[in-house]
Amino acid sequence: MGELLRIDGLSAGYGDAVVIDGIDLALGSGDSLALLGRNGVGKTTLLATLMGFTRVRRGTLCWQGRDLARLPSHQRAQAGIGWVPQERWVFPSLTVEENLSAVARPGHWTLARVYELFPRLQERRRNLGNQLSGGEQQMLAIARALMLNPALLLLDEPMEGLAPIIIQELQRVIGNLIGQGGMAVIVVEQHARLALAMTAQAMVLDRGRVVHASDSASLLADKRRLDRLMGIG
Predict the structure, then answer these.
(1) Structural domains of the chain ordered from first start
(2) Which residues contact 41 (CB under 8 A, 6 or more apart)?
(3) C-alpha dihedral over 227, 228, 229, 230, to 10 degrees?
(4) Which residues of the chain have pLDDT under 70?
(5) Which pick of 83, 96, 122, 123 has the fewest CB atoms within 10 Å?
(6) Would you state the pLDDT for residue 182?
(7) What is the structure's pLDDT at 70?
(8) Overall pTM surpassing 0.70 (yes/no)
(9) Beta bridge partners of 131
(10) Do 35 and 23 form a contact (C-beta atoms < 8 A)?
(11) Is 192 in contact with 34 (CB distance < 8 Å)?
């Protein structure tokens, strides 16, 4: 598999504040990573840095062999990075189908394939974004990112605030996306065991630094270590 993303010694934050420090990470095509840690340790900041929304203080960000830090934020989606932020950011005054069509780029993911993945969106395709439930908005946010046909998909707390039945559905969908191996996926998730069950690799942050990196299966199997890393007990 070709290398998609390489981060070396990355320190970044907002203004004068450094939130993440000394981050190293390499992802290849089709890789999957659970990015874990307690609230406020820098997980979202790392994703925001990949999207160009933070101030990089030190280190390098390489995307498909070129310097990602030099690429303006608005061009990173075009370069192949799809992002589903916590806030979802669906267009409230556009229909579901317009939300999807507005960002579509050529590739595997078409309207038909997205509707096959999320039948509920096809049922609601003529509804406006602000007429959807929270779970439907999350489905739309993921579907819209897929319509970019990204090489890397960033999912920031995709299960947050959703009903258990919706969490189960999204777990199935995200697991299938990872299983297909067509793109790399980074999942930031408070439901640590759920994220580990879907991914191949795991990274845990604390106070902006990497405190653990391993395969997901071994961390999932080590309940005591996982609980300690997540600040449980």
Answers:
(1) 30-41+78-229 (3.40.50.300)
(2) 205, 206, 207, 208
(3) 50
(4) 1, 232-233
(5) 123
(6) 84
(7) 84
(8) yes
(9) none
(10) no
(11) yes
